[in-house]
Description:
Blueprint: E1 13-15, E2 20-22, E3 34-42, E4 49-54, E5 65-68, E6 82-84, E7 91-93, E8 99-101, E9 103-108, E10 120-123, H1 129-137, H2 164-177, E11 181-187
Parallel strand pairs: 5-9
Antiparallel strand pairs: 1-2, 3-4, 3-11, 5-10, 6-9, 7-8
Amino acid sequence: xxxxxxxxxxxxxxxxxxxxxxxxxxxxxxxxxxxxxxxxxxxxxxxxxxxxxxxxxxxxxxxxxxxxxxxxxxxxxxxxxxxxxxxxxxxxxxxxxxxxxxxxxxxxxxxxxxxxxxxxxxxxxxxxxxxxxxxxxxxxxxxxxxxxxxxxxxxxxxxxxxxxxxxxxxxxxxxxxxxxxxxxxxxxxxx
Length: 191
């Protein structure tokens, strides 16, 4: 009655095994052997592509933007254009139930580190705490592609019902087949 309790979507540390949220105090980050994948996102007008670097290609199906740093001269002419999200269904459903196109904008945001990877990052607001904040700042839709058990949901199209690890392998294979995977290189992210 006093407005002290409310409900909203928020990014949390989620355990797909125990099906519970974990406090930041309960989470220990460790470096782990992994890969940094360089993925080509074709421009809407087919005049070229922008390459993003990511450690989690399986979440790309929930991307709602590609971000670059506002002062990065490499991408000045691309800000405001749109790319076709590779492998994504033509229409996905956001968490609010609206249809979201697989054509996503290239935005400028100071969050992006121009020195990391290609200086262009995929923005998946429903699956990453930093992307969540970027998504709020730019009023982006939030598209979930995994369920509470870490399995790909219907928004993942042909990859639906796969465990996230299996989906990663299949997505990387499909990107290679379509010549959209530039390279993969060893990387030690904190997970």
